[in-house]
Amino acid sequence: MTIAEKVNVTTGFNGNCVGQTGQVPRLGLTALCLEDGPLGVRPVRRVSQFPAGVTTAATWNRDLMAARGTALGQEFHDKGVNIWLGPVTGGPLGRSPFGGRNWEGFGSDPYLHGVASYMTVQAAQAEGVVTCSKHYIAYEQETFRDGFTILTSTNQLPISSNLDDKTAHEVYLWPFAEAVRAGTGTIMCSYNEVNGSHACADDHTLNQVLKQELGFQGAILSDWGGTWDTESSALAGMDVTMPGSGFSGFLGDFFGDELVALVENGTVPEARLDDMVLRVLTPILQHQDLSTYPQPTFNANDITAPTNNVRRDHYKVIQAIGQEAITLVKNNRKTGGGLPLPAPASMSSLAVIGEDASASLYGATSCGNSGSSCLIENNGTVTTGGGSGWAFPPYTIDPLAAINAFVCADGPDINQHLENWDLGAAAMQASQSEAALVFISAYATEGTDRLNLTAYSQGDALVEAIAAVNKNTIVIMHIPGPIIVESWIDHPNVTAVLVAHLPGQESGNSLVPVLWGQASPSGKLPYTFAKQESDWPPNNIVSTDVFAPQADFTEKLLFDYKAHLFHFRQIRWFDAKNITPRWEFGFGLSYTDFTYGELSIAKTFKVDNTSIQPTSEPFLKSTTNPGSSMYDILYTATITVKNTGSVSGAEVAQLYVSFPESEGEPPSSLRGFDKLALAPGESGVATFELTRKDLSVWDVQSQRWEIPQGTFKLSAGASSRDFRSVVSHSFA
Ligand code: NOJ
Predict the structure, then answer these.
(1) How confident is the model at residue 560, as a pLDDT?
(2) Quick one: pLDDT at residue 575?
(3) Mind spelling out the 3-state secondary structure of 196-234?
(4) Distance CA 509, CA 499 (A)
(5) What is the pLDDT of residue 540?
(6) Mean pLDDT for the chain?
């Protein structure tokens, strides 16, 4: 290749995809097509709208995570997309509950997020598409995120995420290491700055950490408008600029002729350019035979252009994930109400209340291709968030549609009220019904952080109005992250609450089996619900409007439940009060009961056979724990779980590690989970395989992972606070 040809492979151009590289016609190399997004091919028709990442995480089911990755991989492949701009891999991870994009990824814990990232990347790439794990790194707020919208107007730099080395390794890098291990072909650098450098021009995080320490062999591509300068990005390790001259160049026309000149005059070594091209083409050629791989079948700039239907039978996995994600957080059966509902034939009336219960009055395409919810009110049931992480649904089975279909033969009369503003009329329907299902929602989107943590369209007032007149008020929430539920949660007439997350196109079909007890809810929360905003770590969305806004990650390792556990310790210590969370990370009830046996730990060395692209993360070698990989399995912990109730159900047994106190680590950190489906009376063994990394902390001084000396505590249980068996152990 000539220099100009090589540069073409590294630069974005205009075309029918959200991004495409340049061609090298002389060698038969066509443009590579890059397309959003994490829950479906966007903005493209004749595709599925999958459950969001956060919903998938709430299943805690590895098989479903992989099944979603497979199905998404097939749709991107069949549309002719070479690089899928997903999944979101811990950027954002959810440092702030206000984060506009938290729902795109897999919840607010690095370990859970890492498992889901690994499963998704591996499964999707097996279908031929190359994944792009994003957004690297410490991209935790939308406010002040990007220069291309703010530089022109106010001359402002993007937010700088300022974090220390230990926090970077143990929290934000962890899920990316899992994506690298799973073999991700590309990674997207983010809009924000990291410790004062643009993330797409940061030698430390790109060259030194991602490419050297993790040994990432694929390409780093910029977020759309994340490049600020050709020379510094190229030298810092960025391999592709997007969209380059695409989008008419308005996001910054970098690389291209400028890179040719910099290589020709020796500023950027030609070896660096060769490296860029190899990093782009190696994963592509590993997974795709470009002579047979489909060409794009759509035009992302024209959603009316004819295109192929790639949905196969993916509605099944969409329904299954939506159903398994549903998390029961309150259920009071004492007064004869709560969930599951009685058999349909034994009910005469059921109220279905709220705009979130039924379809958007304006249709799926009413907002063009930008997001599903451009209207503030009456926008219909929330199945997804907005922005580039959104996808068109081919149809939406809303909750009311699925309920009507279920009760049609012999079930209750349905008394519906499908807006949130006429509380009197809504209460009238509920007062005539044996039970009332109240649907509330919240919406989040790329480009802006959440304005508040309350339900959308006065959902709280709606719940209160219904609970005032109906003794069996059941709340269902379609939400992108936590909301504050304190105004109504303890109302005695609120008998049950389900978090149904963002379920995608099969929303109602996922919900009905849980409502009527054909399936017991088995989701667990992938983030914590607090009682008030001030219970989250402070400074979490910086909105101080200065030239160079700074977000200092002063909470360090105390992320989500770890912060709450930390508070909890302080409560005990200072006898303070009222800072226990509403529902903690990992929490979720069932229609049945589970008991746990005793946790046991055995030394069981197993050579790492899960790293498709082995990392080169440095660690302290020891004779106690031999082996050459961070991902060798050193110990296996097991615990028996028994279904002691009267219906079938599934329990997500969780393992938390407490490092020796001297390490200053959070009180406990998730290091394993196992979901067991159990019939009444049945027992199963939950197994947690502990890798070297699971037992290590990042030692800043020696710049390596080390298993600390001293006594660990391992706790197994039903949530991050509900430990059923605790053992002490030394590993070093
Ligand atoms: C910006 C978003 O941050 C990124 O996730 C997306 O892939 C690109 N835009 C392209 O739409």
Answers:
(1) 84
(2) 35
(3) CEEHHHCHHHHHHHHHHHCCCCCEEEECCCCCCCHHHHH
(4) 15
(5) 82
(6) 93
Alpha helices in 408-458 (DSSP H): 423-431
> CA–CA separation, 337 vs 136, rounded Å?
47
> Which residue type sits at 542?
V
In the prediction, which pLDDT does 375 show?
56
3-state helix, strand, coil in the chain (%, to 5): 30, 20, 50
Alpha carbons 423 and 140: distance in angstroms, whole number: 37
Rounded CA-CA distance 207/215 in Å is 10
Both ends of the chain: CA-CA distance in Å?
52
Cα separations in angstroms, 239 against 14, 19, 371: 18, 14, 29
Q: Which residues of 442-465 are buried (b: 16+ CB within 10 A; e: fewer)?
A: bbbbbbbbbeebbbbbbbbbbbbb
Could you tell me if 614 and 691 are in contact, meaning their C-beta atoms sit under 8 angstroms apart?
Answer: no
Q: Report CA(272)–ligand 1 centroid distance (Å).
A: 26
- Residue 573 confidence (pLDDT): 32
Question: What's residue 555's pLDDT?
Answer: 85
Residue to mutate (ligand 1; options 18, 39, 85, 220; most atoms within 8 A of CB): 85
SS3 of residue 629 by DSSP: coil
328 ligand 1 Cβ < 6 A: no
Distance 11 CA to ligand 1 centre (A): 16
Nearest CA owner, ligand 1 atom 8: 224
> What pLDDT, on a 0 to 100 scale, did the predictor assign at position 585?
94
Give me the long-range contacts of 371-379 (CB less than 8 A, separation at least 24). 371/445, 371/446, 373/443, 373/445, 376/457, 377/419, 377/420, 377/421, 377/457, 378/419, 378/457, 379/355, 379/443
146, 223, 445: residue to mutate for ligand 1 pocket, most atoms within 8 A of CB: 223
- The CA 612 to ligand 1 mean position distance, Å, reads 26
411-427 tens-digit pLDDT: 999 999 999 999 999 99
Distance from the Cα of residue 77 to its chain's centroid: 22
Cβ partners under 8 Å of residue 452, min gap 6: none
625 CB within 6 A, ligand 1 = no
Q: Alpha helices, DSSP H only, in 126-269?
A: 147-154, 165-167, 174-181, 203, 230-236, 256-264
Catalytic amino acids? 223
Q: What is the pLDDT of residue 367?
A: 66
Indicate the SS3 state at residue 375: coil
Regions of the chain where pLDDT drops below 50: 150-153, 569-578
- Rounded to two decimals, what is the model's pTM? 0.97
**Residue nearest ligand 1's atom 5 by CA:** 388
200 ligand 1 Cβ < 6 A: no
Domains of the chain plus CATH, in order, are: 316-533 (3.40.50.1700), 592-729 (2.60.40.10)
What's the pLDDT score for residue 572?
34
